[in-house]
Amino acid sequence: MASGSAWRSAARQLPLRLSVGAFFLNSGLAKRNADEATAEQLHQFASGTYPFLGKVDAQTFTRRLSTEEIAIGAALLLPVVPAAVAGAALTAFSCSTLGLYLRTPGMRQEGSLAPTEQGIALAKDAWILGIGLALIAEGVNGHRGPTCTARGPRRHRRRR
Fold first, then answer.
1. What is the DSSP string of 32-92?
2. Helix/strand/coil for 153
3. How far apart (Å, rounded) are the C-alpha atoms in residues 84 and 94?
4. What angle do CA 106, 56, 23 make, to 5 degrees?
C-alpha cells in the first residue's frame, strides 16, 4: 500500500498530468490520419527550423510526430509511468517546439521574446516546459528511498 506522501504526490501531479496528457493524446490522434496537405505543411514548418527533417518524407514525419504525441499523452495519463519519466518526455518535446518558436521568423516580435499572433500557438510550450520540469522535480523528490522522510534524511542514533 502506498504511503500518505505518495498519495499526496500523486494528487499534486494529477491536474498537470491529466490536462497536458489529454491535450497531447488529442493532438497526436488528430495527426494520426492527416491528409497529404496537412502533413506537408507540418513537415515544411519543422524542416525549416530543423533541416535534418527535410530528409524524411512528410507523411512519415507526421506519423512519427503523431506517435510521439500519443506516447507522451499516454505516459502522462497512466499513473504507472513515473513522474520523472513522463516529465522528461514532455520536457524534451517542449524544448523542440520552443526551438521552432525561437528560431522561426515571424513567431516573435522583433527584438523580443513576446509572441506575434502567429507565434502564440508555439509560445504556449513554455508552460508545457514548466510542467515537464515540475514533474521531473516531483518525481526526483518523491522517490528518495526509505532513508529519507519529508523532514530530510533519517538520523540514526548510535547505541551506547
1. HT--HHHHHHHHHHHHHHSGGGGGS-HHHHHHHHHHHHHHHHHHHH-TTS-HHHHHHHHHH
2. strand
3. 15
4. 60
For the record, the C-alpha cell of 19 comes out as 490536462
Cell numbers at residue 58, please?
Answer: 512528410
Q: What are the pLDDT tens digits along the chain (160 aa)?
A: 456 666 666 778 899 999 999 999 999 999 999 999 999 999 999 999 999 999 999 999 999 999 999 999 999 999 899 999 999 999 999 999 999 999 999 999 999 999 999 999 899 899 999 999 999 998 888 644 333 444 444 444 555 5
Burial class (CB in 10 A: 0-12, 13-18, 19+), 17: buried
**Model pTM above 0.70:** yes
For residue 151, give the amino acid letter: R
Locus of grid cell 518523491: 142
Sign of CA dihedral 56, 59, 64, 69: positive
